[in-house]
Structure prediction request, 409 residues.
Amino acid sequence: MNKAVNRYTALIACSLATLSTGVHYVWSILQTRVMDYFSVSSSDASLTFYLFIAINVSGIIIGGRIRDRIGIRIPVLVGAAIYVSGLILSSFVPQTSFWLLYITYSGMVSFGGGLIYTCAIVCAQNWWPEKRGFASGLVVCMLGASTVILTPIINTLVSEQSLGLMATFRALGIGFFLLLAIAYPFMREPEGQRAKAPQPTQTPTTRDATMRLLKDRSYYLLLFCLMIAPFAYYTINPLMKILGISRGLSESGVVSMVMATGFASAAGRLLFGKACDHIGSRRAMALILGISLTCILLLSFARGIFFYALVILLTTAYGGTAGITPVLAVDYYGSENTGTTFGMLMIAVLISSLGSSAVIRAIASPEGDLTLWNFILPGILAAIAAVVAHFNRPAAERESRNENSRVKD
Prediction:
């Protein structure tokens, strides 16, 4: 292995890679320009974001399975190529063919980023086995930090006085290509933990890991909690700019808020990832759901600076969900086949992104505006999920508690 690759350079490279794949977190800045340029409705433009999240999870799942078989090098390389190509192709979508953006942006960009995401997290965890929460938290923290960096850049570039929408897609593609090219040489796993080339005897391994999850009731309860946790955030995110102005914030205030959500998302990923090392991932999940419940209910009437603060807090909880998911995978199912386990848990995000989009649109007003039920329903679901998270223990822990009870009896 190249001597320049060690636990520090690998962690920095993995963080830089995820930083480069966070373009979807600034969709609220792009959405108004997309609506104007393509002459589409808010709901049609918002669908770009929801499809992005869903297809991104598909990339995460597939990337995890590939990593467990052949390591991270190939999926990261392929993912980077698809990601950059998707951005470049998005810049050539005809003004009369908005639907092509669902393929290039929601499809290619999201899928390529998903391939990179899983590999970066697993790579970092393998270099820092004694601090998995910190390592994975830092990597996903950088994904959230991309909002802070990209918001002012994209907001400037996308304006009519600057590059405009389509040239901005091209500029982003070129910029991310350079960042990923810098990170790639250092994204290698430790020699002892690197996945080897696939052998016939290894084939059942990932299959067995999948079947073990599918037979465990804790897996379905985890899916439910992870599916509900981002619901409130998904309700607000695509309309963050529009909703902020309607609640009394200025244009500059809204841009400031979107940038601040980048800090919040990054901080949530790091803080809750680190919290898992102290209070456990199960309690961290219950805490996140409690914060989401409080925020979404208060956001139903909040205005001005109060609205601003609640959006930041909700985004912190959303970032926390991303930060603890890799730790949940290890806490509940061990460190073998982590990529497969993590991918199976990320199915929750796939279901949530598509399901929440359908629910949000169904209970919104005919004009696409949020109604009171758009705030109440996510709150009710978060309350139920918080209770489930509190009592949902790993199978090994349940068996240990049952064994202790039998011994006492």
